[in-house]
Amino acid sequence: MSIDDKIKQDLSEQAHERDRMMAENRGLFAHLAAGFRLGMRWVMVIGYLLAILLTAAMIYTGYHFLTTAADERVLWGVLFLTALIMQVTTKLWIWTESNRKSLLLELKRMELRLLSQQRSS
Fold first, then answer.
1. Among 7, 37, 54, 49, which residue's Cα sits nearest to residue 98?
2. How far apart are CA 11 and CA 44, in angstroms?
3. Helix, strand, coil: what percent of the chain each, to 5?
4. The whole model's pTM is what?
């Protein structure tokens, strides 16, 4: 087998592998669910519960902001903004944690793929 044939074969295998990986592309819910599969599941559950509680706090404080007298609106506005910032921070942490878990899983897959290629050569 010439070097050109070997290169063509390797490129073909890589294209086939890339197409297979693209077909496995997961959706958003599968990506977020990955955070529950790998260790520290309870921390993710607490994060989601905190996000839900902060949503309820935003609704509560937003309602009071819109229905109270003008002199109390500053208090409810500050509480609403505080709950909003806390919720955004919590959701960013959840997203970052899910990305980290997904990246670790992908690195493990690549490591196994490299090991199997080294064994076959």
1. 37
2. 40
3. 90, 0, 10
4. 0.66
